[in-house]
Every structure is written in C-alpha cells, then in structure tokens.
Automatic annotation (TrEMBL):
<feature type="domain" description="NET">
    <location>
        <begin position="1"/>
        <end position="82"/>
    </location>
</feature>
<dbReference type="InterPro" id="IPR027353">
    <property type="entry name" value="NET_dom"/>
</dbReference>
<dbReference type="InterPro" id="IPR038336">
    <property type="entry name" value="NET_sf"/>
</dbReference>
<keyword id="KW-0805">Transcription regulation</keyword>
<protein>
    <recommendedName>
        <fullName>NET domain-containing protein</fullName>
    </recommendedName>
</protein>
<dbReference type="Pfam" id="PF17035">
    <property type="entry name" value="BET"/>
</dbReference>
<keyword id="KW-0804">Transcription</keyword>
Length: 83
C-alpha cells in the first residue's frame, strides 16, 4: 500500500490495534522518532518524562499513517537483521 493512497482514507480499528502493538514492540532507540511524528505541526509543551500517552482515536489520519509506515519499516528491518 502506498503512503499517498493510505493517507486518503481513515485507519480501521484493527489497523489501529496493530499500530498500537507495533509501537509497543519498538526498540527504545526508535521511540524518539514516534514522538516527533506525533508532535509534527503541533504546539506541544516539552516535558522531561519517560512515558508519553497518545489517544490514537483523536489523531488525524495522516499522522496515524506516518506512524504505521514508520513502525512497519522498523519491524521489517528487525526481521531482516534476524535472518
């Protein structure tokens, strides 16, 4: 699925569940990029904390798809390294 095609539609509930799992399974070094994607184009207060809560139900579709493709790319790279 291409990025331009995906951002044109809403993410389904099963896709959001899969995205949640992909985010949970990310290596810690990749979580900073997830936060950058969430904060893109938003006014966000900077806090020093170890946890970030994001409600995927309230995120715009472009952000969700950016996250989805980023997390899928990281997951695929992990699988390739294991081979």
């Amino acid at each position: 699925m291409s990025f331009s095609f995906a951002v044109g539609r809403l993410m389904t509930f099963p896709e959001k569940q899969h995205l949640r799992q992909l985010i949970r399974d990310l290596p810690p070094k990749n979580l900073d990029r997830v936060v950058q994607i969430f904060c893109r184009g938003k006014q966000v207060e900077r806090h020093s904390c170890s946890e970030v809560y994001v409600d995927l139900e309230n995120e715009d579709k472009a952000t969700l798809w950016r996250l989805y493709f980023y997390t899928e790319t990281v997951e695929n790279a992990k699988r390739l390294r294991e081979v």
